[in-house]
Write a structure and sequence with these properties.
alpha/beta
Length: 178
């Protein structure tokens, strides 16, 4: 992480985003304390370089992530909001999550996903933006309503050289701006 911090600082980046692991619901669990200690160490290292540590939404409900952030208690810790992860892992509703995370989101990592037919047994799957269960228009509208003005990174996948999905994604996003 020291190397990442040094490189990020040299490139004038503001953020370093990570998945810290699955944060347990129980803050008395041994894994909670391990993750808490390690996250504080990383946040402190990044703070020394003027960087913010972004915790990506994902495997835990947003209320657990917020409780964990409160326990980390570092000014340079924010959220990389990935609404697709909330659907893939079946842990939260992305539209509701935007409200809960108000004021803490530093970056949006926008992707869509389909819910698993067997939540808790199997993961959901990624989907083309606008074709999944994330409710992208509602998520973006809610982000605007909360005053979010930061970056939005759009994740697309596909074969190298095939631009059909990125083009469709851009057109989908443009249609919402009209």
């Amino acid at each position: 992480m020291r190397s990442v911090a040094g490189i990020s600082h040299a490139l004038a980046c503001r953020y370093v985003g990570v998945h810290v692991g699955t944060i347990p619901d129980d803050d008395n669990a041994p894994a909670w304390n391990t993750l808490l200690t390690r996250t504080r160490i990383v946040a402190d290292e990044l703070a020394g370089c003027g960087l913010t540590l972004l915790l990506e939404t994902g495997r835990e409900p947003v209320n657990v992530l917020l409780r964990f952030m409160g326990a980390v208690a570092r000014e340079n810790v924010g959220i990389s909001f990935d609404p697709g992860n909330l659907i893939v892992y079946g842990v939260d509703d992305p539209v509701r999550a935007v409200s809960a995370l108000r004021g803490r989101v530093s970056l949006v990592h926008l992707k869509d996903a389909l819910r698993s037919a067997a939540t808790g047994v199997a993961y959901g799957q990624r989907a083309e933006l606008g074709m999944g269960d994330v409710q992208i228009p509602r998520v973006l509208s809610k982000l605007r309503a909360t005053g979010y003005t930061g970056p939005i990174l759009v994740e697309v996948s596909g074969d190298a050289g095939d631009l059909s999905q990125p083009i469709a994604t851009v057109e989908f996003l443009r249609s919402m701006l009209k």
